[in-house]
Amino acid sequence: MKIISKLFDNEAKCRGCNWDTKTLYSFEGEQGTNWENGLCGNCLADMLEQGNYHVTKGDFEKAYDILMEYWDCLPDERKMEMDKKLQECGV
Ligand SMILES: [Zn+2]
Question: Which residues of the chain have pLDDT under 50?
């Protein structure tokens, strides 16, 4: 599945957390043009993690952008935890 994003001129609501964001993410073809079901970077990352999704190379660049956005939302103690996990994965 390809991850797609849309940048909104005005703030849009994330379906997951109701957070106002300018960028929503979704899967290509799944929502069509219906961005009411879009997720913010944080919720998308949570969904990928909880759903045990695997990122393939084609999605890497986009996934990296999402991770960076997710990273910015994390409290410091979670950053350290994530950093440790990433190092264990050899990233
Ligand atoms: Zn959200």
Answer: none
